[in-house]
């Protein structure tokens, strides 16, 4: 069997196991996924599954990616609302928060769980098999999505805000890291029920914290040009 045929077979087996994992997640939730359940549903043994996936965390990561389709489909529409890079990025954050707090277990697996390897490598492997997931997305957004490390993808995108004169180069990495930590902190708080907030309230508060963080870094003379309008009102999140 040639190399091409082996790759085709491997991709086919990948799909069998990810289809099975998707069914298990839909039936029992991602926290109840096990290799054995997935292998049984796919009609193979656990040892066969381990021939294609290093460990359960990797299989859960790949399966979780299957549940981000709605987010990826809505992202371009959200970003179109902005007239400049800062506004577009804030609308992207609103879209991300909407979907991540709707499915917190899914997004925590992708962006927070310990995968024991480089997540960028896993993401590239996923899109090698599921190229169609990116079809229809603008090339600029595809480039961002392919950068799995959240703060890296943020820094890549908001670089445009430097060129537009909204923020300084020295603040790019800081903003990217701080906004990621805001989301992780809010997600952790929400998932562990440390506050009595609905998912909409948690998403709204996160967006507003991100907005405030970014606003403080924007050149004061350019702030009036920002038109981002979060759909979550202050009344929805209790204000600050």
From TrEMBL:
DNA-binding span(s): 34-53
Record flagged with keyword Iron: no
Keywords for this protein: DNA-binding, Repressor
One MF annotation (Gene Ontology) recorded for this entry: DNA binding
UniProt keyword Repressor present: yes
Gene3D superfamilies, per database record: Tetracycline Repressor, domain 2
Domain HTH tetR-type span(s) in chain numbering: 11-71
Pfam short name (any one): TetR_N
Protein name, per record: DNA-binding transcriptional regulator, AcrR family
């Amino acid at each position: 069997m040639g190399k091409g045929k082996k790759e085709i077979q491997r991709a086919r087996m990948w799909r069998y196991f990810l289809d099975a994992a998707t069914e298990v997640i839909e039936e029992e939730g991602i926290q109840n996924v096990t290799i054995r359940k997935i292998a049984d549903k796919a009609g193979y043994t656990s040892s066969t599954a381990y021939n294609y996936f290093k460990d359960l965390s990797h299989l859960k990561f790949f399966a979780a990616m299957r549940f981000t389709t709605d987010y990826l489909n809505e992202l371009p529409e959200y970003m179109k609302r902005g007239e400049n890079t800062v506004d577009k990025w804030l609308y992207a954050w609103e879209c991300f928060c909407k979907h991540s707090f709707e499915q917190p277990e899914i997004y925590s697996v992708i962006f927070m769980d310990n995968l024991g390897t480089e997540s960028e490598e896993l993401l590239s492997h996923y899109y090698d098999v599921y190229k169609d997931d990116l079809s229809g997305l603008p090339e600029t957004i595809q480039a961002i999505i392919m950068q799995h490390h959240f703060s890296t993808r943020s820094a890549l995108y908001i670089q445009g805000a430097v060129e537009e004169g909204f923020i300084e180069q020295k603040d790019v990495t800081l903003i990217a890291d701080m906004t990621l930590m805001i989301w992780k902190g809010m997600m952790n708080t929400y998932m562990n029920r440390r506050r009595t907030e609905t998912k909409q309230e948690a998403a709204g508060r996160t967006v507003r914290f991100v907005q405030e963080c970014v606003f403080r870094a924007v050149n004061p003379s350019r702030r009036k040009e920002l038109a981002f309008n979060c759909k979550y009102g202050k009344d929805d999140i209790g204000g600050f």
